[in-house]
Design goal:
By secondary structure, this protein is α+β, with helices and mostly antiparallel strands. The protein has helices at 5-8, 12-35, 79-87, 123-131, 133-151, and strands at 39-42, 45-53, 60-68, 99-100, 104-107, 113-122, 160-161, 174-177, 198-203, 211-217, 227-231, 235-240, 245-250, 255-265, 270-277. It is built from 5 helices and 15 strands. It comes from Haplochromis burtoni (Burton's mouthbrooder). It holds the Pfam family PIH1.
């Protein structure tokens, strides 16, 4: 990738600062864990991605239903009992333990911004839901209601399970309780660097794309030496050290990594990344 080497290599003093920061962070996390033995940090596994809409503005919302055996399972529930539960006057009386993550901004296949939420349930219960469409619809309903209650949302009940995608974005760690509770868990994730303001421009806007241009605002970043940029075939990852910003998005078209270029303007504190689309390029046999 033809990228300014200053974007990919930090100065020695910045590396030392980052190492010191990581050491202090690990020490702090160790103190928190010793003071709060009832919780731990986990990295869930992707499960299924559900697309729905916000009723207020009709914007796309994606729910990443993840799985982990660190989340306790719900009480045993047969299919017959589930049918009775759904037909009862109070189906919400049955609680599914789950971790509800914070919202994160992503880019969908139409190059439009959207919001995604990560929901983690017990791995064995997730597999049970995958084998029975009724259980699958039930866990999606419980996830939707949990997010609505926590974030004061109103989501559409006309959802769709994406066939070829298990997760939108990147899997993040979550902090969960180690003691089982028969309620929806509201769990606080560890500190995550803020998402910078960014825009993805497709050129030309109509027809086959030739270039993808990413404009990323990085207020407070005085030099490109503190930036680490990685342009993948379908992904862009940017970190402003030490933990000032973090961006991890999938772009809508495949790009030629070797012919991507980046330039940081320190006066406007804006990073421009130009990526050549592989659509329409001749194939080398």
């Amino acid at each position: 990738m033809m990228t300014d080497s200053s974007l990919l290599n930090s100065e020695l003093d910045l590396q030392q600062q980052e190492e010191l920061y990581q050491q202090l962070l690990l020490q702090t996390l160790g103190q928190i864990n010793s003071e709060s033995p009832d919780s731990k940090v986990i990295r869930p596994e992707p499960g299924m991605c559900v697309k729905t809409f916000s009723e207020s503005n009709k914007e796309k919302v994606f729910i990443n239903v993840c799985q982990s055996n660190s989340v306790p399972p719900p009480p045993e529930l047969s299919r017959e009992k589930l049918v009775e539960l759904l037909q009862s006057d109070d189906p919400s009386g049955f609680r599914v333990p789950m971790s509800l993550g914070e919202p994160h901004t992503e880019i969908d296949n139409s190059s439009q911004g959207c919001t995604a939420y990560d929901v983690v349930i017990n791995q064995d219960f997730f597999q049970k839901c995958q084998k029975d469409p009724l259980f699958q619809q039930f866990v999606i309903l419980v996830s939707v209601e949990g997010l609505e209650n926590k974030y004061n949302l109103e989501l559409s009940r006309e959802w769709k399970v994406l066939k070829n995608r298990k997760f939108l974005g990147s899997v993040s760690e979550q902090n969960i309780r180690t003691k089982s509770r028969p309620v929806i868990e509201e769990l606080q994730p560890p500190y995550v660097p803020p998402l910078p303001e960014f825009t993805i421009i497709v050129e030309p806007p109509a027809g086959e794309p030739e270039y993808l241009i990413a404009e990323i605002k990085l207020p407070g970043v005085g030099s490109s030496r503190s930036l680490v940029l990685d342009v993948g075939e379908d992904r862009l990852v940017l970190t402003a050290q030490p933990s000032l910003f973090h961006l991890d998005i999938f772009h809508p078209f495949l790009v030629d990594q070797e012919n991507s270029v980046a330039q940081y303007n320190s006066s406007t504190q804006t990073l421009w990344t130009v990526m050549m689309s592989t659509v329409g390029l001749p194939q080398i046999v």
